[in-house]
From TrEMBL:
Domain of life of the native organism: Eukaryota
Annotated Peptidase M28 domain residues: 264-473
Family: Belongs to the peptidase M28 family. M28A subfamily.
Gene Ontology MF terms in the entry: aminopeptidase activity; metal ion binding; metalloexopeptidase activity
Swiss-Prot/TrEMBL cofactor(s): Zn(2+)
Protein name: Peptide hydrolase
Length: 510
């Protein structure tokens, strides 16, 4: 399919709305609503224990089933369920979130924030180097296709240094395939330099043994079709090239990069102090490869469920829920949101809590190791709230790096304290973690991470309930009071944070 115009996109959204209503109506169970226990005007102040007690696995699972039905709307275009931005599955997800909050009446003010996003889709790809088809070859996110979406041939040409300067590219790159070492500058810069030098494709090889799952980031008209390659498979080729031997290659990528509009949905309590906002978020989109029930259907649903139960209580501080779009394309929605905040509005947000992947099947209870030394003041108090809660429940937890892999990134960079919890993606569970959490050492925390099998079978309900209760606790605590929590300071962030950051979203960019 060609690049859809914005009008065509609106048509997609409208038709998804039309399809989605019968799906939810045909669900023979009644719509999920909160029973209202207190008459209007006499709600008790939110209480952590009480709101935690309202979290149930059945309700989470019922919503997961609804979300999976919505992901199937993506089948017409993608041949499998998906909720990737621009798809009917994502449009259906947005409608579902919006409708769920709307049903809660005047407890929340809801707003849509529309923003432009680039959406990349690789339909097919192949790389042949000499006689070999390297196993680790992976097209970069947001890569353009090869010329006319056809295979291109050329000699591999070793680029000097890391290919961050145009002068690193020998003239012989023109009409051939640039072979570039990872490091120093973003993959997008290397691809752009290769394109300017006239390369027909580029391969970025790792300085480590492993493969590279990268993204080119913001599209440029100079980008060429670009693959990542493991250091292990690059090694013999580099040796040949360095000896002056020639190695030829065939590169093929059928892909499209399109500009679309997508939407962040934000809901804030009408009660509570709007100058001291408790903010939290999950992302509404999945990757193109699958339905994203754990990533981040789980967080999306946890937030919907806690937002629903919160309506039985009153709050002292306003609570603002966000469902971000375009997280998988590089944190687009949350970045856009924070960038649009005037300083005065930025100052009202006391903290941001990120809830991405709450129910990994081979889970660990992970807490982002957000410290005040490297992050805005208050991040560590939030981290300690999570620690205290797991300890009170008699549960184990681990720390994971706070390194830019999810939607907290824009907040931290703009001076807003942040943190969050997760249950693990493509990392490998250790022996020790098997003792701490059960499950299976040596396997990924989420074996279906960013794949088609991230479906209804890909959640651990125990972990999901535990973490949804913790989300409820985090909201209840700060919605009652910010006593003892650091005041906001100006929106300048510490550089200690950016020094540690290699990610911007799930894919490496450098
Ligand atoms: C919530 O509490 C505030 C004061 O803290 C009060 O003015 C308001 O009426 C309460 N609202 C409800 C719905 O209980
Ligand atoms: C919250 O509710 C629990 C159970 O009803 C009660 O024991 C506790 O004292 C309440 N906490 C506060 C701070 O009011
Ligand atoms: C906001 O977006 C949702 C999801 O796309 C849609 O259902 C709703 O109609 C929109 N509301 C407004 C006021 O634009
Ligand atoms: C947490 O981060 C701090 C620095 O900000 C570091 O000193 C500490 O070792 C980290 N802890 C773990 C368990 O990673
Ligand atoms: C916590 O981890 C220890 C091993 O470090 C294990 O013996 C214990 O059973 C774990 N606790 C729970 C609640 O799983
Ligand atoms: C969830 O994890 C717990 C603890 O590891 C395990 O006992 C349980 O069987 C798991 N549930 C599912 C559905 O995998
Ligand atoms: C962080 O907040 C604490 C408590 O409000 C305060 O004592 C401390 O001075 C603050 N630190 C910085 C670096 O602003
Ligand atoms: Zn995610």
């Amino acid at each position: 399919m060609g690049v859809p115009s914005i009008l065509a996109l609106c048509a997609t959204v409208a038709s998804a709305t039309a399809i989605q209503i019968p799906i939810l109506a045909s669900d023979n169970q009644a719509p999920i609503q909160a029973e209202t226990g207190h008459p209007h005007g006499s709600k008790p102040l939110v209480n952590s224990t009480e709101i935690q007690d309202l979290i149930s696995g059945d309700r989470l699972q019922r919503r997961a089933k609804q979300l999976f039905e919505i992901a199937k709307l993506g089948e017409a275009e993608y041949n499998h369920p998906t909720r990737v931005i621009g798809s009917a599955g994502h449009a259906g997800t947005l409608d579902y979130i919006y409708e769920t909050i709307l049903q809660l009446g005047d407890y929340y003010d809801i707003s849509n924030q529309s923003f432009p996003a680039v959406s990349g889709n690789v339909f097919e790809s192949r790389l042949v180097l000499g006689q070999d088809v390297p196993k680790s070859a992976a097209p970069m996110g947001l890569t353009p296709p090869t010329k006319d979406k056809q295979p291109v041939h050329g000699d591999l040409v070793l680029v000097k240094n890391e290919g961050c300067q145009t002068t690193d590219f020998p003239e012989t790159v023109a009409g051939n395939i640039a072979f570039i070492k990872r490091g120093v500058c973003p993959f997008g810069t290397k691809s752009e330099n290769a394109g300017r030098a006239g390369a027909v494709a580029a391969v970025v090889y790792n300085y480590e043994k492993d493969g590279v799952q990268g993204t080119l980031g913001t599209p440029s008209s100079f980008h060429v079709a670009t693959f990542g390659l493991s250091g292990e498979e690059a090694d013999p080729i580099i040796k040949k090239l360095e000896k002056g031997k020639s190695v030829d290659g065939i590169a093929y990528i059928d892909a499209e990069v399109k500009q679309i509009l997508t939407v962040n949905i934000v809901a804030q309590t009408t009660e509570g102090d709007p100058n001291n906002v408790v903010m939290l978020g999950a992302h509404s989109d999945s990757v193109a490869e699958g339905p994203g029930i754990n990533d981040d259907g789980s967080g999306t649903i946890s937030l919907l469920e806690v937002a629903t139960q919160l309506t039985k209580f009153n709050v002292s501080n306003a609570v603002r829920f966000a469902w971000w779009a375009g997280e998988e394309e590089g944190l687009l929605g949350s970045d856009y949101y924070v960038a649009q905040l005037p300083e005065e509005e930025n100052q009202k947000i006391r903290l941001f809590m990120d809830y991405d992947m709450m129910a990994s099947p081979n889970f660990a209870y992970q807490i982002y190791n957000a410290t005040n030394a490297a992050n805005p003041n208050g991040s560590e108090e939030l981290r300690d709230l999570y620690i205290d809660w797991y300890e009170e429940q008699g549960l184990n937890y681990t720390f994971i790096p706070f390194d830019g892999r999810s939607d907290y990134d824009g907040f931290i960079r703009n001076g807003i304290p942040g943190g969050g919890i997760a249950t693990g993606a493509e990392g490998i569970k250790t022996k020790k973690e098997q003792e701490q959490f059960g499950g299976k050492a040596g396997d990924w925390y989420d074996n279906c991470y960013h794949q088609l099998c991230d479906d209804l079978g890909n959640v651990n309900e125990t972990a999901w309930i535990v973490n949804t209760k913790l989300i409820a606790h985090s909201i209840a605590t700060y919605a009652r009071s910010f006593k003892g929590f650091p005041e906001r300071t100006l929106s300048v962030s510490s550089n200690a944070y950016s020094e540690n950051v290699k990610y911007h979203g799930s894919r490496l960019f450098i």
